[in-house]
Write a structure and sequence with these properties.
Blueprint: E1 7-10, E2 16-20, E3 24-29, E4 34-39, H1 42-51, H2 56-65, H3 74-88, E5 92-95
Helix pairs in contact: 2-3
Length: 98
């Protein structure tokens, strides 16, 4: 499982394009030529990670401040699920900070 101090970032040299619709995005990974249908706010997460490596707590707190998630117990779990979906398709990576 992920630790609270782990930093998330975009995979170096990653190239992808994102098309956004109402509640979903299509991400095309130009390196692998794979296309993925993902739920929002994955586009928001990608934008945040473009500028800095962040912990899950930092991403979650920012999402709450920007009204993407309600401030409740489910928002941390939702962020873990969204970031994990990006990890599974090799768009983000995690750096352990023990």
């Amino acid at each position: 499982m992920f630790k609270s101090k782990d930093k998330w970032s975009l995979v170096p040299e990653s190239e992808f394009s994102v098309n956004v619709w109402e509640h979903e995005i299509v991400l095309f990974n130009q390196l692998t030529q794979d296309t993925h249908l993902l739920a929002k706010p994955v586009d928001w997460i990608l934008e945040k990670l473009k500028y800095a490596s962040l912990t899950l707590d930092e991403l979650t707190e920012s999402a709450i401040r920007e009204n993407l998630f309600p401030n409740d117990s489910d928002c941390s779990l939702a962020m873990i699920n969204f970031v994990n979906s990006l990890l599974q398709i090799d768009v983000v990576e995690v750096q352990s900070n023990e």
